[in-house]
């Protein structure tokens, strides 16, 4: 029987990974899940590098669910300026808030997280999940993936606490693709010395994954992210 994700959430949950890993999809779906569990939830988009897909693209869905969105005022426009609003500090200052942080792709994007790291370490109530995707060009092996993840850790001066497996081919993803990615995920976990916290799976594929644990249901975007 498939076991759905049921981990008790930390106050702050961060998602980071290489471009196209699925980190924004994971972060948005996780924020919506938190809200559905009854938590006062906000999601902060710290991805000030990637102009192609940002959390702001899900603004309507987040607003409808009552999830507070904190993002650069230039996200979703043709102005690609590396600016973050002052309200982003709410994720570390407001202890009544359950916050999700979408960290920028690779080590360059992770630099924006650096200013919040001292606050996160002081409170020590966070999960920093590395999102991995076997089907992305630069992260198809455990060794290549670990190299990218360690660059992110170095850039933001924060170590990952767990793995969010998100191997997918967008809307072309099949159950066998997810099953075939389990060995890769385990190899990354062993290389990094990290637990596999969740495996993101599109809702309609879950019934075909009998026996898999910590399955996190997601609604996937139509483009590859």
What's the short version?
This protein has helices at residues 23-36, 59-65, 90-93, 106-110, 117-123, 142-156, 175-180, 182-192, and strands at residues 12-17, 41-45, 68-70, 98-102, 126-132, 162-165, 196-202, 215-218.
Features:
18% strand, globular, 31% helix, 8-stranded parallel sheet, single chain, Rossmann fold, alpha/beta, 8 helices, 225 residues
Please describe what this structure looks like.
With 225 residues, the protein is α/β, with parallel strands linked by helices. The chain has a single domain (12-218), classed as P-loop containing nucleotide triphosphate hydrolases (Rossmann fold, 3-Layer(aba) Sandwich). Helix content is 31%, strand content 18%. Helix 6 (142-156) crosses helix 8 (182-192). The two termini are 29 Å apart. Residues 74-83 have low confidence and may be disordered.
Give a topology summary:
Layout (H helix, E strand, L loop, with lengths): L11 E6 L5 H14 L4 E5 L13 H7 L2 E3 L19 H4 L4 E5 L3 H5 L6 H7 L2 E7 L9 H15 L5 E4 L9 H6 L1 H11 L3 E7 L12 E4 L7
Parallel strand pairs: 1-4, 1-5, 2-3, 2-4, 5-6, 6-7, 7-8
Helix pairs in contact: 6-8
Structural domain count: 1
Q: What summary fits the major beta sheet?
A: 8 strands, parallel
CATH class: Alpha Beta
> How much is the radius of gyration in Å?
16 Å
Span between N and C termini?
Answer: 29 Å
């Amino acid at each position: 029987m498939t076991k759905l994700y049921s981990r008790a959430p930390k106050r702050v949950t961060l998602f980071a990974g290489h471009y196209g890993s699925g980190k924004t999809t994971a972060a948005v779906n996780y924020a919506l899940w938190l809200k559905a569990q009854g938590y006062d939830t906000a999601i902060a988009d710290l991805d000030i590098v990637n102009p192609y897909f940002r959390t702001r693209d899900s603004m309507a869905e987040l607003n409808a669910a009552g999830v507070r969105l904190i993002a650069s005022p230039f996200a979703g426009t043709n102005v690609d300026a590396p600016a973050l609003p002052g309200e982003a500090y709410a994720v570390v200052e407001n202890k009544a808030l359950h916050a999700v942080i979408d960290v920028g792709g690779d080590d360059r994007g992770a630099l924006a997280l650096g200013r919040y790291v001292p606050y996160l370490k002081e409170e020590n109530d966070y999960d920093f999940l590395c999102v991995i995707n076997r089907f992305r060009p630069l992260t198809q092996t455990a060794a290549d993936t670990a190299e990218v993840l360690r660059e992110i850790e170095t850039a933001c001066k924060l170590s990952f606490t767990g793995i969010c497996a998100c191997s997918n081919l967008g809307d072309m993803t099949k159950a066998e693709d997810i099953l075939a990615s389990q060995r890769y995920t385990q190899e990354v976990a062993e290389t990094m010395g990290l637990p596999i916290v969740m495996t993101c799976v599109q809702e309609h594929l879950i019934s075909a994954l009998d026996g898999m644990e910590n399955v996190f249901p997601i609604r996937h975007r139509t483009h590859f992210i």
